[in-house]
Amino acid sequence: MSQQLTSTLGVEGYVDAETCLEILFPGGGISSRFFRKLQAEGYIPHLKLGRRTLFCPSEVRAALEKRLKRRAIA
């Protein structure tokens, strides 16, 4: 599934938070603060390498879609 999302987004690999937000929400869908809050609560998958936190846009999109679908049903 991750491979399919990666090809849909046209992005492979890991990026920083700001770049991930630009890829997923080109028009500015959510704020950086809300994105970091979701990360801290464990809803967004990420890698921590020293001081850097990296995100895979396709994995983040899948996690957000899963969360939104779950909330919409409940």
Structural features, described:
There is one protein chain. By secondary structure, this protein is mainly alpha-helical. It has one domain. Helix content is 57%, strand content 8%. The protein has helices at 2-9, 17-24, 32-40, 57-73, and strands spanning 47-49, 52-54. A two-stranded antiparallel sheet has the order 1-2. Helix 1 crosses helix 4. The protein is globular, with a radius of gyration of 12 Å. The protein starts with a helix and ends with a helix.
When the domains are counted, the total is: 1
* Unreliable residue runs: none
Distance between the termini: 24 Å
Tally of DSSP helical segments:
4
Structural class, by secondary structure, is mainly alpha
Cα Rg: 12 Å
Average pLDDT reading: 82
Q: Write the H/E string, N to C.
A: HHHEEH
Helix content: 55-70%
Q: Roughly what fraction of the amino acids lie in strands?
A: 5-15%
Strands of the largest sheet, in order across it? Answer: 1-2
Let me know the number of strands. 2
The outline comes out as globular
Biggest pleated-sheet summary: 2 strands, antiparallel
